[in-house]
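We include the entry.

. . .
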Amino acid sequence: MYAELHPDADSEFSESALFYERRTAGLGGRFIQEIELGINLVVSQPQIGGQLDDKFRCFVLDSFPFSLIYSVERDRIWIVAVSHHHRRPGYWRERLARQQPE
């Protein structure tokens, strides 16, 4: 099993890391490490995140106010959002209609 990020989730990840790095040197790197740890955890233990609905799960990070929103598919973890906790709940659902996983 492997992880794949929706393009918008990848943008959220990159933009957030850049924000943190601009705020404090090294903080962006710590953010990247925590996201990568979270991705590795959901790949190795797909049921670790709380159930949002019949398809999506949510894994909450420890040190940053973010969650990974993902679905468990046959051979991959499809990460649809790297969601900041202050974002409107469910905002990421709109992107599913624009691009479905192959």
In short: The first helix runs from residue 7 to 23.
